[in-house]
Amino acid sequence: MSIFNTPKIRTLISLALDEDGTRGDLTSETLIPETDVCEAEIIAKQGGVFCGGPLAGLIFSEMRSPVRVELLTQEGERVQPKKVIAKFYGSTRDILRAERVILNFWGRLSGISTLTSTYVDCVQDTQTKILDTRKTTPVFRELEKYAVRMGGGTNHRMGLDDAILIKENHLERCGGVKKALETAKSHIGPHRKIEVEVKDLEELKVVLLEGCDIVMLDNFSTSKIEEAIALREKMNSSVLVEVSGGITLNRLPELSQVGVDYISVGALTHSASCFDFSLLIN
Length: 282
Description:
Blueprint: H1 7-19, H2 26-31, E1 37-44, E2 48-49, H3 55-62, E3 68-71, E4 78-79, E5 84-91, H4 92-122, E6 129-131, H5 141-150, E7 164-166, H6 168-174, H7 177-187, E8 194-198, H8 201-210, E9 214-218, H9 222-234, E10 240-244, H10 252-257, E11 262-264, H11 267-270, E12 277-281
Parallel strand pairs: 6-11, 7-8, 8-9, 9-10, 10-11
Antiparallel strand pairs: 1-5, 1-12, 2-4, 3-5
Helix pairs in contact: 1-3, 3-4, 4-5, 7-8, 8-9
């Protein structure tokens, strides 16, 4: 099943339409005859990566409107300013009622895809992958993580039930890194990943000795990350290394060059600007 054509996404669409007017569009219904039809264009007002196209057809479908959607842009396609993204054909009232809901979805998702692509471009031609986090808009996680993928990024956990990620508070309450890893391994099967966050090189040594899938270096300086990578090589460990905390675009080239496997960036979803589109009726 498509990510878009699911009960959860259809519910989001229904809520968004209700939010914008449960009784319809008072202005358009007052000024525009019910029989009026038009052709409308959605135009990109900036450059970036487009995401969310199929939602337009689902929004009109939820409205029980026969407006026809012609998508002229692929998911994940890089677009330039003034690019015609799509055309709508049909009831002028319906197009105007759906306009803001469609552009809100497209703006949010394309903003995430565009920001993600900027981060991904900074680590191109290296082994490093850009990861998202769970710092997403409540109930929009599935769509926002989809947008990260369209921008070239890689999804971390979708939710708490995907994998074990042992963080500082877990370690504080369960007796440290060694005890946490032993307990985690005894409770889950081999098909579930285990990741543990460490705060220094001493904790990292324990992780490399005990073994797990991924170790997260949280708020390490670049020099400390280099030491961590060197320690992994010295101990001949296959544990993958993820870095997080204080990640800026300026740091990405140097971080990718020192040999980290993953860089997780909460900003991909919590700080993306809305992509700017415009609807024009011909």
